[in-house]
Write a structure and sequence with these properties.
This protein has a three-stranded antiparallel beta sheet, with no helix packed on it. The protein is globular, with a radius of gyration of 29 Å. β1 and β2 form a beta hairpin. The relative contact order is 0.13. The chain is mainly α and about 400 residues long. The two termini are about 55 Å apart. This is ABC-type enterobactin transport system, permease component. Keywords: Cell membrane, Membrane, Transmembrane, Transmembrane helix, Transport. It is a multi-pass membrane protein. Belongs to the binding-protein-dependent transport system permease family. FecCD subfamily.
């Protein structure tokens, strides 16, 4: 400290302080005071530049919103188009005009049986399965902030598959009993993964690693049970494990439709805390979000979506993994993209089932074979890109 000759006191930085210690005026000849918002001393403020930046951000947001809306509308149009095509093709071709007439109640009795009794339950089951899996994958990947965090990678569908195979092979179950067993197996597996990953909270990477380990154990259990079963029983279980829409009726489509009628509103309600959780646990807590309660609710809904989809058609592979990334690429990473992810999942399963039915005349491939052909290369590409970028986890 030193005096400046006028009664003021100079501190070590050279700024003047009053005798009481409060900051005073700048001494003559001292360094100029820096502007708070500028890097250079005494830089003039430019209100025009700030306003231009604000307009640029607003234009970018409007453009992003228009693109998101256009992609969502495009997917919403593509889904019914593919649905009509899948209903019109088959051993007894039905013109698209008659398919549309069936929806308004103006179809012939023969068309009514072919569409309403045979083809629509299968197509509707596939559409709902794709919507559920796409939405489940989007929830897990957004919540855990990991592109590998989908139900078929972290063991949820493996738990459903193990339970269903045990029901078929050990207890001789079929039909609805297998579906109920699959749902129970998925829920129990998800609870076990959550408890094993708990360390004063659940971190995304730890849950993914625990899930991969649990999936490996359950895969071994499935293989052991299959080797101990009769050939006929093992064949039926293998078809279910591949993921198939063969012989799907209204008994499969209707329960799935009711389950989604309950789960979809829950997804809408939980999407708000999900946006905050994407910023990190501390930021979400600072915004007033109850982190663990919201995370548990989102995981429960995501598990339920994957469970009911698996119970209806078996573990249709890779749909939950690829639907959300495709939707985000189409929307250029706009937000959560939950609705585009759900529509993308439905479109994927519908298209895959259409290809499975008509790829080779007279051969009905399981839909899981087609989705596996698309999803396996994507998974390899994702692992390669993650390793190059040092984001393997």
């Amino acid at each position: 400290m030193a005096t400046n000759g006028t009664g003021g006191i100079l501190d070590r930085a050279g700024s003047e302080r009053t005798p009481s210690g409060a900051p005073g005026t700048r001494p003559a000849g001292g360094p100029p005071r820096r502007d708070r918002g500028g890097d250079r001393p005494d830089s003039p403020r430019r209100p025009g530049a700030t306003e231009s930046a604000r307009h640029a951000v607003a234009r970018a947001r409007r453009g992003q919103g228009l693109r998101n809306t256009a992609v969502t509308l495009g997917l919403a149009v593509a889904v019914p188009v593919v649905l009509v095509v899948s209903l019109s093709l088959g051993d007894f071709p039905v013109p698209a005009s008659e398919v549309l007439a069936w929806f308004v109640g103006g179809a012939q009795p023969t068309t009514d049986f072919i569409i309403g009794g045979l083809r629509l339950p299968r197509a509707l089951t596939g559409l709902l399965v794709g919507v559920a899996l796409g939405l489940s994958g989007a929830l897990f990947q957004s919540l855990l902030r990991n592109p590998l965090a989908s139900p078929d990678i972290i063991g949820i569908t493996s738990g459903a598959s193990a339970s269903a195979v045990i029901s078929i092979v050990v207890f001789g179950a079929s039909g609805a009993a297998v579906s109920i067993g699959a749902v129970c197996g998925a829920l129990v597996t998800a609870l076990a993964i959550y408890l094993l990953a708990w360390r004063h909270g659940v971190a995304g990477q730890r849950l993914v690693l625990v899930g991969i380990g649990v999936a490996a154990i359950l895969t071994a259990v499935i293989s052991y049970v299959m080797t101990r079963s009769r050939v006929e029983t093992a064949e039926a279980a293998l078809v279910w494990l591949t993921g198939s829409l063969h012989s799907r009726t209204w008994a499969h489509a209707t329960p799935l439709l009711w389950c989604l009628a309950v789960l979809l509103p829950l997804v809408v309600v939980l999407s708000r805390p999900l946006r905050a959780l994407q910023l990190g646990d501390d930021s979400a807590a600072g915004l007033g979000v109850r982190v663990e309660r919201s995370r548990l609710g989102l995981i429960t809904v995501g598990v339920a979506l994957a469970a009911v989809a698996t119970a209806a058609a078996g573990p249709v592979s890779f749909v939950a993994l690829v639907a959300a990334p495709i939707a985000r690429r189409l929307t250029a990473g706009a937000g959560l993209a939950l609705l585009p992810s759900a529509l993308t999942g439905g479109l994927l399963v519908l298209t895959a089932d259409l290809i499975a039915l008509h790829l080779i005349d007279g051969v009905d491939f399981p839909v899981g074979v087609i989705t596996g052909l698309v999803g396996a290369p994507y998974l390899l590409w994702l692992l390669a890109v993650s390793n190059r970028g040092g984001r393997s986890g």
